[in-house]
Amino acid sequence: MKLFLDTNVLLDHALNRVTGQPMEISYLMLLTKNQNIPVYISPGSLYTFAYVLQKNGLRGKDLRMKIEQYLSLVHLCPSDKTYFLEGIQSDFKDIEDAFQYFHGLQTECDHLITSNVRDFKPHCDGMQVFSPSQFVTQVLNKKRGIDF
């Protein structure tokens, strides 16, 4: 099993956004670390992650430490311009979603975890798309309030 995390999942976790699913993401991150399940993000996610954290007040040494902390939990997908060209030529409405999808697909990830399932699902034939909660409950068969 290889997981690809959309940028919003990282941000929901790092910023503990209640609009996301931070508890499920925390469980998922802990499980993948303990069971050595590879988790991937695109290089673009890292740029956006750093930018949004900085815009939310994290600066200097604290920002660098937070980025290092997340880099210890995830792998970066390899990248080249073909991934971007595929995204441009796809029928995704949101081009950034297309870039994310093709990075995960080319890295041979099985599951794409996003807080934005609706925009990905119609386009993702090569990976199963889940929200963090859906993945934890449907794929891992865990129960909220019991397992996490």
From TrEMBL:
SUPFAM superfamilies: PIN domain-like. Pfam families: PIN_3. Transmembrane segments: none annotated. It comes from the Bacteria. Residues 3-118 form the PIN domain. InterPro entries: PIN-like_dom_sf, PIN_dom. This is Twitching motility protein PilT. It comes from Dyadobacter endophyticus.
